[in-house]
Write a structure and sequence with these properties.
alpha+beta; 74 residues; 42% helix
Length: 74
């Protein structure tokens, strides 16, 4: 997460019983950057967005649309 803070100015917004949320002040602006980030996020947590996103292409698309990053472990 420290690397995400350096690269995307990601700050911790919320921690709860099974997840965390970050706010990225600098979201990825290219598909290539978003794909690399999506792969990192998938390695960190196998469900992104609390919406059942379990694959790199769908996580990439979500990253391009929102500065809020949600990770869910159950």
């Amino acid at each position: 997460m420290r690397s995400w803070e350096d690269r995307f100015w990601a700050k911790l917004l919320r921690v709860d019983f099974a997840g965390i949320q970050l706010l990225a002040e600098r979201s990825p602006h290219t598909v290539e950057t978003a794909q690399r980030l999506a792969a990192e996020m998938f390695a960190f947590c196998d469900e992104y967005g609390g919406q059942g996103l379990h694959d790199i292409p769908r996580i990439t698309a979500a990253l391009m649309d929102s500065p809020i990053w949600t990770f869910w472990w159950d």
